[in-house]
Write a structure and sequence with these properties.
The protein is α+β, with helices and mostly antiparallel strands. Helices cover about 30% and strands about 35% of the residues.
């Protein structure tokens, strides 16, 4: 029961982290790309996204290899999480999927429960229409476009 509670608390913590991170992205508010448009990210609702929630996680996991996602060199086991709200990048709306490594922390709660830390090892953004997938370089903050595989994914929908 304690482990279950610890996992629930960890998931809630990650949700709060995503909420905090989505409103203060790594890019500065006054940064612009080569075309002069604002390249900062902002939070949006995912109501109109064709791929969202668990479908977004499955899309990333099933359509791309670990090598394509930059996860092939990891020693630690990772898991995928999807942000509850969308992200606007350069005027386009995206659903954010993150690959995280969960490790046990040395810190315990007041009632003795173990806590966990999450380290993001990959960030992926699926456009609301499913046609564009971006991978964020965590070191530079740059977004690189991955090969579009939406047509393959749509064929799997019953």
């Amino acid at each position: 029961m304690k482990k279950f509670l610890a996992i629930i608390l960890s998931v809630l913590m990650v949700g709060c982290v995503f909420a905090a991170c989505s409103s203060s992205d790594d890019t500065s508010a006054d940064s612009t790309d080569a075309s002069g448009s604002d390249s900062s990210a902002s939070e949006v609702t995912t109501d109109t996204a064709v791929i969202k929630e668990s479908d977004a996680i499955n899309f990333i996991k099933e359509e791309y290899t670990e090598e394509e996602l930059g996860l092939d060199g990891l020693k630690d086991k990772y898991s995928f999480m999807v942000a509850e709200s969308g992200t606007e990048i350069d005027g386009e709306n995206y659903v954010k999927v993150a690959a995280n490594v969960m490790t046990q922390s040395d810190v315990t709660t007041e009632d003795g429960n173990v806590t966990y830390n999450f380290q993001t090892v990959g960030e992926y953004y699926i456009s609301f229409d499913g046609q564009t997938v971006l991978m964020k370089d965590l070191e530079s903050g740059e977004y690189n476009e991955l090969e579009s595989r939406y047509s393959d994914y749509s064929a799997k929908i019953p």
